[in-house]
TrEMBL record:
It comes from Apibacter adventoris. This is FAD-binding oxidoreductase. PROSITE patterns: FAD_FR, FLAVODOXIN_LIKE. GO terms for biological process: cysteine biosynthetic process. Its cofactor is FMN. Keywords: Amino-acid biosynthesis, Cysteine biosynthesis, Flavoprotein, FMN, Membrane, Transmembrane, Transmembrane helix.
Length: 732
């Protein structure tokens, strides 16, 4: 709830100001670029902070007949006006160390003047300045609300700069770069706001004037500049302008305008005649201008350019996040209020949606008012006559993510009239809980007083159109609304498949229970932890997911062999040189953590597969340990051991430990974790990362033990570490 308030605040502020901010960022980056140009100009005096007036003025006095004015510009150029030894007028930029003229002042570049005026006031004078000031303040609020969103995302303020779970989504980059650019953007916005407020005199401006009683003595001989103590104290960087006395009259003085005061100095004895201290707000204006424009530092001006460009990126990525959130994945023709047939879908990877959409399309073709949505969007459907549930199952018989709220919503929104329902479950017979979630949904609906079961639950194994047709036939028998009963209407021809060459198939002599296959990836981009989706037949939509190890730039898969299993049977009978059809899924949530100080990899069985690649790719030599459980020590395990020993010798792995569950002493990988409990508790406490790959049962057991371990030692819960991205899992 609070998250959405901040999110809406962040979005609303961005919506109000994005046009202005885009223009201000573009013009701001041009001006910051101009500041760099000015800084590298030969007229820019870099030692301006070291040279005093007592050094410069005598040099000028010697070189020129008369100096009327000396000015230090905002770009640290030293400019003089006066007469040369021949009595000719001079005006130019000088080198304050030798007094030589090094350039003639030019009029400001028209384009830069135009950009400056647009940046400051949008060519709207005072109104424009007010708009600019307000929008600068809005930028400050956007940065603040964005910071709060990051704190909420990271759970704790102290984790503000901790690792963000990597993904290729715009959210990830928005948050990642948002944190980096936060400080400069806050500085830009605060100084922008301050400078506008100052312009409108919103701060008190009391000047403090001190006048000396001492009257000048015209008979005294003029003393040398270098002997005037005040002139030795004042550095050129503090000066804005010096007006020299017109004549040798006693009441003609040096008027020295500094950044924070104006001093009138007696030309004969160098005493201070009067001093006006500018208000403190003037000092802040100078600091504000330095920070807002980068006029005095190339590095800061460069940071300002980068920040301005990032503001443009944040506008783009922010709107793309909102667009993705708001834009419906699917547009219904009829509303849920008027629809008679409601199709509710639970799907993680979209295949179940495909079947539901194929049915939905046919219903629309027959002019039937139908409505298709996710199970998480369940509510009351006032006109519903039929409720068709299509859902897959994940985890250990759990709901896919877009169906997790269904049980609560079902209780919350009882239908107010009888509705016929049927459930079509999508799952895989390879799992113990085949279509477990669909069964649960069927049970829940059955209990509702308003529900009437139309057809018994149908279970579809492995997205099989043949299985689906069985349900269609049953439906067609009972319901007058007819659906196509040919598999071709429900088949899916996978797109974007790549041909990949087989390099080697390693089948151990003692057991082919687990085998390795090496593939030549060609130009495909991938890394260890990504997923290879293998299609045993190009025309067939059946697919299998395998976790990739990247070793010597090849794809290596560790595969469990299922006799007569579609994909494992297919892969084990490949020969070197054969090609297979596959595609890579970029699985960013299970990549080796780049920034972790320590990583522990935990696996069982073929779960070791991606870890072999991650270890081989550990060129940074991050402290990495591996714990793995197998049934017994056999040929493939010895092959793994040999590989891991090599990695230890190369410094890519610290240590590994294997457990065996069918040897004399029965040990599971959980037992190894329990044995090294202090090590696990401490490494998590010290921001280490644990990666788990293998069976879901092993994941559940390991997480349970880790939970006990961190609770015993530090009274913490494992869920917190999971939320912080310190426990990464890829189990099946
Ligand atoms: C990690 C994982 C866990 C799964 N768990 C189960 C399960 O417990 N029971 C089951 O019947 N199917 C399970 N499946 C299979 C999916 O439910 C099945 O592939 C389904 O067709 C996917 O549909 P979807 O693409 O719409 O999400 C699992 C699949 C994966 C990848």
């Amino acid at each position: 709830m609070t998250l959405s308030i901040w999110r809406y605040a962040h979005l609303t502020l961005a919506l109000i100001s994005f046009l202005f901010l885009s223009m201000a960022s573009i013009t701001g980056s041009i001006l910051a670029f101009n500041a760099i140009e000015n800084n590298v100009s030969p007229y820019h005096i870099h030692q301006i902070k070291q040279i005093s007036l007592a050094q410069t003025l005598p040099v000028l006095q010697k070189k020129y007949l008369e100096i009327t004015e000396l000015e230090i510009t905002d770009n640290s150029y030293v400019k003089i006006q006066g007469l040369d030894k021949e009595g000719n007028d001079i005006e130019g930029y000088i080198n304050p160390e030798n007094g030589n003229i090094i350039g003639v002042p030019k009029k400001n570049n028209k384009f830069i003047q135009w950009i400056t005026s647009f940046h400051r006031s949008l060519f709207l004078h005072d109104t424009g300045r007010i708009i600019v000031g307000i929008n600068s303040f809005l930028l400050f609020l956007i940065a603040t609300s964005g910071s709060i969103l990051i704190i909420k995302r990271q759970k704790k303020i102290t984790r503000f700069f901790s690792r963000i779970k990597k993904s290729s989504s715009p959210q990830y980059y928005h948050a990642l770069f948002g944190r980096l650019m936060l400080l400069p953007i806050i500085i830009i916005s605060v100084t922008g706001t301050y400078l506008t407020m100052e312009k409108f005199n919103l701060f008190p401006k009391t000047e403090h004037k001190i006048t000396s009683k001492q009257s000048p003595d015209p008979t005294t001989k003029k003393i040398d500049f270098k002997d005037i103590p005040l002139f030795s104290q004042i550095k050129l960087s503090e000066v804005k302008k010096i007006e020299f006395p017109f004549s040798e009259e006693p009441d003609d003085y040096y008027i020295i305008k500094l950044k924070d005061k104006e001093i009138t100095v007696n030309q004969f004895n160098g005493s201070i005649v009067s001093q006006i201290d500018f208000p403190i707000s003037q000092k802040f204006v100078n600091i504000g201008l330095d920070l807002h424009t980068g006029r005095n530092s190339i590095v800061w001006a460069f940071i300002l350019i980068i920040s301005s460009l990032y503001i443009l990126f944040f506008i783009y990525s922010g709107f793309s996040i909102t667009w993705k959130r708001k834009s419906p994945k699917f547009k219904n023709k009829y509303t849920k209020e008027e629809s008679k047939i409601i199709l509710l879908v639970g799907s993680e990877n979209g295949t179940t949606f495909r079947f539901a959409k194929a049915v939905y399309k046919q219903l629309l073709e027959q002019g039937l008012q139908s409505y298709l949505t996710e199970l998480n969007k369940y509510q009351s459907f006032p006109q519903a006559e039929y409720l068709l549930i299509f859902t897959s199952t994940y985890g250990l018989g759990d709901a896919p993510s877009n169906a997790q709220k269904f049980e609560i919503l079902l209780k919350k929104y009882p239908q107010n009239h009888p509705v016929n329902y049927c459930v079509i479950g999508f799952g895989s017979m390879l799992y113990n809980n085949f279509c477990g979630f669909a069964e649960w949904v069927d049970k829940l609906l059955n209990k509702e007083l308003w529900s009437k079961k139309l057809i018994n639950i149908h279970k579809i194994n492995d997205k099989s159109p043949v299985d689906f047709i069985e349900w269609v036939k049953e439906w067609n028998k009972i319901i007058p609304i007819k659906l196509y009963s040919d598999t071709k209407f429900y088949k899916y021809i996978p797109q974007g498949l790549k041909k990949i060459k087989v390099e080697e198939v390693y089948i151990p002599n003692d057991s082919k229970n687990t085998f390795l296959i090496k593939l030549k990836p060609g130009k495909i981009k991938f890394t260890s932890g990504d997923i290879l989706v293998v299609y045993p037949s190009k025309e067939n939509e059946k697919e299998r997911y395998y976790s990739i190890a990247k070793i010597n730039n090849n794809i290596q898969l560790s595969i469990k062999y299922y006799p007569s299993g579609l994909a494992s049977e297919y892969l084990i009978s490949r020969n070197p040189g054969d090609t297979i059809y596959a595609r890579v899924i970029n699985n960013t949530s299970f990549h080796f953590p780049e920034q972790a100080n320590q990583v522990v990899l935990i696996a069982n069985g073929t779960g070791i597969g991606p870890f072999l690649g991650m270890i081989a790719q550990n060129l940074k030599k991050t402290k990495t340990s591996l714990y793995c459980g197998f049934r017994q020590e056999n040929e493939i395990v010895i092959k793994y051991e040999q590989f891991l020993e090599e990695q230890i010798n190369q410094g890519k792995l610290l240590q590994y430990d294997f457990s065996f569950s069918s040897m004399r002493e029965i040990r599971y990988v959980m037992d190894l974790v329990k044995r090294d409990k202090d090590f696990f508790a401490d490494m998590l406490k010290n921001n280490g990362v644990i990666m788990i790959c293998g069976s879901l049962q092993m994941q559940t057991n390991v997480e349970k033990i880790l939970d006990e371990i961190v609770f015993d030692k530090y009274q913490e819960r494992i869920i917190e570490y999971k939320n912080q991205g310190q426990i990464l899992t890829d189990c099946y």
